[in-house]
């Protein structure tokens, strides 16, 4: 199995008792005063990995401009290549590496093993693609990936007539025995633990013989903007994909037909902007992110309304978004069900606020890279904080924090949340800052440049 340039060492957070200051810990820099920084960020993980999949299924070669290059996008590229897709690097138009030319395979071929790492987008978006390939494709990933929910992907494909072996598996590893065709049709699934179950099916559905009429039936549907992103990416490539009005917002249909080749410019990752923008609240001063899109389906755009709730002021000037910290960080009550991936930095902010907060609607983030509710509570409480786990969120009562090891749990957003706390607290040691390579390998440099007032 190819080893990604961005692989981080395997690490069991629950077994680790590394002493303070052990080799590999990253001393989170303290802010020395108010910030005045401009930061440019690499491309969106969610957009890059969707466009890679759609390009591989398209009717001709596509070009991705300024795509993300990180562990998650590397894994997606390697997986699609191993199914026969041509993916070539050409000189980049962005500041963060090569552009990509994606040439679809004449016929997708299985007989391969796909390493999903810890990438939800790889493990949920590619099994339907493997079903369209000829031959067996085995999916596996990190130890943490084997704990992430996959039952809905497996049962969906089985209901659409795809052979996934008969060993009753509900998680990685499993093998999709692709026959080169998927029947498609009507399907009802429970996507309450991840919107990626919906997106994964929709992305391939135009290539199913009957397309797909999909419904969600379950107690909640998290991360709906990510489903809107999937629909928008499909329609931009000429696919008839829409919300099924009859299903009250919890149904979608995709008509069978070609997926157009396209030249697509990938927007900067607005969710990765969260710790940088939140830094202006923690340290004071202001942080500007460049390349902020005027129109986007990225849930990170919600930071424009979320950060003012904590006391920031926000100004969009052309494509530059500036967040300026207020006198204090205010605590607040928010339902974050649409943007669970923004929870780690916002919980870190809440721990540094002047009054308590409750962040709810995010029970599903127990199934992200790690159980983020448990991890955030453990790490903040480990530094003297008071965070209580709720069934679907966290209650955060700010307390004076002290230094110590902040565990990353192989979770990029846990690592960056530790960096945010470390801006305000002496002696915070993030044990695995390298895990930010999942979506933002440049994080340590960009963070130091932000503190130095750089770009
Ligand atoms: O489709 C996507 O690109 C994503 C969907 C969301 O997943 P969940 O619905 O599992 O939260 C989000 O949290 C994740 O970071 C990326
Ligand atoms: C939940 C996340 O990732 P994944 O795409 O692996 O689900 C995330 O990036 O916050």
Structure description:
The chain has 2 domains: 13-41 and 268-451, Enolpyruvate transferase domain (UDP-n-acetylglucosamine1-carboxyvinyl-transferase, Chain, Alpha-beta prism), CATH 3.65.10; 45-265, UDP-n-acetylglucosamine1-carboxyvinyl-transferase, Chain. It is 28% helix and 21% strand. It has 12 helices and 22 strands. The protein starts with 25 loop residues before the first strand and ends with a helix. Residues 7-21 have low confidence and may be disordered. It is found in: Cytoplasm.
Put the structure in a nutshell:
This protein is an alpha/beta fold and 455 residues long. It contains twelve helices and 22 strands.
The share of residues in helices is 25-40%
Report the structural category. Answer: alpha/beta
Please give the domain count: 2
Q: Per CATH, which architecture of the largest domain? A: Alpha-beta prism
Contiguous runs where pLDDT drops below 50 for at least 5 residues: 7-21
- What radius of gyration results from the CA coordinates? 21 Å
Bound molecules: shikimate-3-phosphate, phosphoenolpyruvate
What is the top-level CATH class of the largest domain? Alpha Beta
CATH superfamily of the largest domain: Enolpyruvate transferase domain
CATH fold-level label of the largest domain: UDP-n-acetylglucosamine1-carboxyvinyl-transferase, Chain
Largest sheet: 4 strands, mixed
Number of strands: 22
Summarize model confidence as the mean pLDDT.
Answer: 94
Strand fraction band? Answer: 15-25%
How many helices? 12
Shape: globular
């Amino acid at each position: 199995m190819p080893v990604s340039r961005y692989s981080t060492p395997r690490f069991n957070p629950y077994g680790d008792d590394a002493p303070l200051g052990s080799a590999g810990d990253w001393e989170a820099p303290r802010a020395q005063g108010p910030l005045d920084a401009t930061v440019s960020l690499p491309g969106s993980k969610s957009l890059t990995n969707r466009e890679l999949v759609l390009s591989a299924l398209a009717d001709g070669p596509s070009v991705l401009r300024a795509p993300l290059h990180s562990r998650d996008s590397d894994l997606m590229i390697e997986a699609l290549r191993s199914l026969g897709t041509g993916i070539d690097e050409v000189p980049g138009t962005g500041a963060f590496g090569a552009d990509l030319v994606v040439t679809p395979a004449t016929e997708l071929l299985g007989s391969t093993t796909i390493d999903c790492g810890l990438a939800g987008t790889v493990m949920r978006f590619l099994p339907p693609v493997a079903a369209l390939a000829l031959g067996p494709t085995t999916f596996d990933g990190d130890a943490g990936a084997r704990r992430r929910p996959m039952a809905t992907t497996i049962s969906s494909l089985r209901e659409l007539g795809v052979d996934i072996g008969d060993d009753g598996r509900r998680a990685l590893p499993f093998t999709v025995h692709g026959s080169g065709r998927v029947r498609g049709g009507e399907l009802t699934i429970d996507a309450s633990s991840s919107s990626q179950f919906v997106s994964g099916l929709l992305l391939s559905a135009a290539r199913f013989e009957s397309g797909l009429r999909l419904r969600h039936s379950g107690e909640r549907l998290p991360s709906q903007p990510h489903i809107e992103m999937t629909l928008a990416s499909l329609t931009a490539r000429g696919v008839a994909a829409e919300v099924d009005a009859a299903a009250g917002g919890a149904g979608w249909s995709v008509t069978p037909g070609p997926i157009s080749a396209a030249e697509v410019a990938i927007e900067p990752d607005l969710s990765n902007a969260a710790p940088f923008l939140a830094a202006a609240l923690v340290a004071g001063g202001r942080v500007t992110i460049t390349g902020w899109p005027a129109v986007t389906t990225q849930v990170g755009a919600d930071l424009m309304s979320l950060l003012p709730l904590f006391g920031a002021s926000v100004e969009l000037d052309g494509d530059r978004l500036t967040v300026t910290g207020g006198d204090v960080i205010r605590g607040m009550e928010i339902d974050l069900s649409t943007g669970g991936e923004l929870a780690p930095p916002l919980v870190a902010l809440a721990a540094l606020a002047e009054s308590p907060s409750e962040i709810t609607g995010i029970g599903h983030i127990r199934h992200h890279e790690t159980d983020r509710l448990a991890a955030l509570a453990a790490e903040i409480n480990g530094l003297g904080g008071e965070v209580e786990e709720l069934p679907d969120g966290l209650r955060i009562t700010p307390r004076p924090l002290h230094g110590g090891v902040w565990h990353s749990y192989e979770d990029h957003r846990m690592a960056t949340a530790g960096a945010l706390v470390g801006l305000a607290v002496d002696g915070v040691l993030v044990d695995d800052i390298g895990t930010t390579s999942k979506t933002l390998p440049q994080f340590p440099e960009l963070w130091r440049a932000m503190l130095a007032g750089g770009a």
